[in-house]
């Protein structure tokens, strides 16, 4: 492998730019300190952990390593960390160490992919120090993105499960309110019944009932429920319950109407997905079925033509 002077200069410029960027992000100025303090306050207010980790030594060694790595290298601003916290809460991770673990996972995954890129070989045309440096940085950035994409995917699937089970949960709440249960007891009973059917929704109802029992503020607990899940269906439920509480309308009647509308919306979503199948299946048919059909239909004719031209 031979490098020219231009390749070396470009590689040096790439590495210097990367180091300056990391140094600027890690610079301990007053703005970074204030952002970290604001993040601690927001984490204490917004994130409600489902369990309290009193002893960090009980956590696995890998989790402790990732958490320490994320705490020692604050490469993200307070706003970015708050967005990560909301994304993790929607995925079901409400522990205070979820954000440091995610940051540590991003750094560890990026470092592993970057080290693997050093073992790769490029074609002779692109075999230069600049190309290797760009590949190293590209693999590092890809590794930084992958853990966040995984967390977003988990959160999306969790929202879909909650939306799918919400009409049944509303029917359970209607039965409980008709039996004379309060809102907190209705949520508690619905969460117990939904533990095996939809654990994410049962967990959210249980957390909301715990907030109601501790604070007694129905509006705040319901708004926290909508913020944690981030689903339009849950937000509709929150708005319905808040309006029923504000105007004194019967909760059971509002929940019954909301359950009907949610079932209608679920059927419309299923019909929309079914309508898209005909379009989505076109590409697999063209790539998989059409070549076989062409081969079967035109294959004998092509073979006969090749035989005739071969005899001539």
Can you put this structure into words, describing what you see?
- This protein is an all-alpha fold and 312 residues long.
- The protein folds into 2 domains: 117 residues, no CATH class; 106 residues.
- Helix content is 80%, strand content 0%.
- It contains 12 helices and no strands.
- Helix 6 runs antiparallel to helix 11, helix 7 runs antiparallel to helix 8 and helix 9 packs antiparallel against helix 10.
- The relative contact order is 0.07.
- About 9% of the residues have low confidence.
Features:
312 residues; membrane; 2 domains; mainly alpha; single chain; transmembrane; flat; Type II secretion system protein F (GspF)
What would you say about this model in short?
The chain is mainly alpha-helical and 312 residues long.
End-to-end separation in angstroms reads 52 Å
- Average pLDDT figure: 77
Q: What can be said about the biggest beta sheet?
A: none
Strand proportion: under 5%
Give the strand tally.
0
Number of helices: 12
Q: What is the overall silhouette?
A: flat
Unreliable spans are 26-34, 40-57
Kindly provide the radius of gyration, computed on alpha-carbon positions and rounded to a whole number of angstroms.
28 Å
Proportion of helical residues: over 70%
SSE ordering: HHHHHHHHHHHH
Counted up, domains total 2
